[in-house]
Amino acid sequence: MEKLVDKVAIITGGAAGIGRQTALLFAKEGAKVVITDVNENEGEKALQEIKAINEDALFIKHDVSNEGDWKNVVSQSTEKFGKIDVLFNNAGIYIIKPIPEIELDTWNKLMGINVTGVFLGLKHVLPVMEKQNKGSVINASSIAGLMGAPGHLLYGASKGAVRVMTKDAAAEYASRGIRINSIHPGYITTGMAEYASEVTHASKEELDAAYPLGRMGNPEEVAKLVLFLASDDSSFSTGAEFVVDGGATNILL
């Protein structure tokens, strides 16, 4: 049975990786999908894939760190579909650097996307959901928001912020029928894992071996967790952390 029939979902960073796979899965489950991304070419390609499943879809070019862009996304989404039921704050960037090498401009750029982007999504989407007295928000954190690792102060700080922002927002909006949860993936077979392999000089096989299940995850596995949180199946979950990491945070290395 389709789990998101007639629901309207916004997915940031929807042009590739986890965002793209989630958008495709949502469309299969009956949702009207709005994908946003800074990459216009890939966004349009993803839109055509989604429309092949469900014609009710929209792509909007979107810098999540820009408040004007967020206002435009909410305006276009509500004008076309009349409501917003689900927000997946998925857009983010990944940088591994030793602390002394982190330049302030780099810090500000990553925080603008990974942290401010989530805040602005909450700021502008939650009032729409409040009028409906229902909604589900899923914020993409990471296992880097739960544990420490060398070279991860910048990225980990941003994902730790998303983790706690999720709890604060969930506490504030629980009485208004809105659920807000965070997901915490380990390495998933996307461009971010390829980047990590290049920077750390670890092969894919070495990254796979770091996980108790013997492999990294794939975007479809994360998308299924996001679907659960977007759907009514998770109706009693809010302010919670959902870890999808092949057991990595369950062992002491």
From TrEMBL:
It comes from the Bacteria. InterPro entries: KR_dom (IPR057326), NAD(P)-bd_dom_sf (IPR036291), Sc_DH/Rdtase_CS (IPR020904), SDR_fam (IPR002347). The keyword NAD applies. Gene3D superfamilies: NAD(P)-binding Rossmann-like Domain. SMART domains: PKS_KR (SM00822). Keywords: NAD, Oxidoreductase. Residues 7-191 form the Ketoreductase domain. Belongs to the short-chain dehydrogenases/reductases (SDR) family. NCBIfam families: PRK07231.1. This is Dehydrogenase. The lineage of its organism: Bacteria, Bacillati, Bacillota, Bacilli, Bacillales.
